[in-house]
Amino acid sequence: MVGRPNPAGAGLTVEGKGGIAAIAIMALPLLVVGGLIAMILLIFGPAQDAGACAPGRTVDPQKITETAIAGYNGVQLENAAHIMNAATDLRLDRGAQILGVLAAITESDLQVLDHGTDADPDRRGLFQQPDDPEWGSLSDRMDPTRSATNFYLQLQTVQSWSSLPPSVAVSRVQGGSDPYRFEDDYAAAALIVGTLAGGGEVVCQGGNLVFPLEAGFQMTSKFGYRGAVEGLNVNPFHAAVDLQNWPGACGAPVYAITAGTVTVKAGYTLSIKSPEGYTVSYLHMKLSDISVAIGDQVGAGDQVGLVGSEGPSTGCHLDLRMNVIGTTNQAVAELVRAESMGGPAGFVDPEEFYRLFGVELCPPDTCRRTY
Q1: Residue 165: is the preceding peptide bond cis (ω within 30°)?
Q2: Do the Cβ atoms of 101 and 189 come closer than 8 Å?
Q3: What's the mean pLDDT when you consider all of the chain?
Q4: Coil vs helix vs strand at 277
């Protein structure tokens, strides 16, 4: 999905309750040619994947760096390469490569183990796969490529696997009572895959990255210093971008851009924490229009509410912001933070966040900026 040109407004922020910088101020929409806008809105559908992950890249296991990556080296990294290659052979992307390496880190420390656990003594190999026809013969389970291929074949049977939190997606293949037991190893898996793929720090997250509004949105306010707003006591630094479908912005669906857990639902703020530790917030919705609750697990692209104009706002729009304090994704952590520009701590430019994943949030040929 891409943004489409439409008329717009403007935005600003205040420091909100609980440390969340809040609120964009929008100007009234401009007049446009109604027929053109109607045609654009008909052509382009609802929120689509925005290309969260780079394509999977084949790695030569015989040319693995001698330098440890995330504490793993030698044969362990060779096994990671075999897992990555199994994914590319199935035309899966870098996100899938991360999931496979994640599973093997947690299950075996990237080692082909010829033993199981006391509870499951028949489990073997990189993925500790049990003695079951779906996992093949013992030799299959002990072979890095075949065991990884079988992991990916099972992963693809999991409904919406690419939109699930990474640990949840892996647990639905590997089993076990704790769907979050893989979570602590995600940063290591992402770093290994990103480094072996030749791109340095990984610029991909588990799950899809989607846009927060349906096609036909425009950017009405940018991230950064905006100055004073007449008649309102607001922080001159806007720690977000404002997006608006036009016409008819009020009541438009709002979608979670990434998977995560709902951590804040208060006032006019909804916050969802990614498995990678950063938090995405969606502002100005009515509480009654927010369709998720604190503690809920959401997937990328799940509808979480409706566009509104709650709080200091002069029109219906979505204020989209993200705070990276505590993130385990090194590339995300290294984005320029608002505090370096005099803004509130931890917030980063959503446009720069999208660019990490190879996506323009508001490309000049398809999205009109009106601030």
Answers
A1: no
A2: yes
A3: 80
A4: coil
Phi then psi for residue 47, to 5 deg, are -55, 135
Distances (CA, A) of 85 to 135, 145, 253, 344: 18, 8, 38, 42
35 pLDDT higher than 90:
no
> In the structure encoding, which two tokens stand for residue 185, read together?
């190893």
The set of residues, in sequence order, having a beta carbon less than 8 Å from that of 88 and lying 6+ positions away, is 56, 57, 58, 97
Contact between residue 257 and residue 281 where contact means Cβ atoms under 8 Å apart: no
321: enclosing H helix or E strand: strand 318-323
> How far apart are the C-alpha atoms of 155 and 123, rounded to whole Å?
18
pLDDT of residue 54: 57
Task: Tell me the CA end-to-end span of the chain in Å, nearest whole number.
Answer: 22
Tokens of 272: 């969802």
Crossing angle (nearest 10°) for helices 94-108 and 186-196: 130
Between 10 and 28, whose confidence is greater? 28
Parallel/antiparallel/unpaired status of strands 237-238 and 297-298: unpaired
| CB 22, CB 321: distance < 8 Å | no
Long-range CB contacts (< 8 A, 24+ apart) of 33-37? Answer: 34/247, 37/6, 37/216, 37/246, 37/247
DSSP state of 333: H
Q: Strands of 149-226 (E only): list them.
A: 217-221, 224-225
As a whole number of angstroms, the distance between CA 264 and CA 349 comes to: 20
User: Does residue 164 or residue 256 have the better pLDDT?
Assistant: 256
Taking every pair of C-alpha atoms in the chain, what is the biggest distance, in angstroms? 73
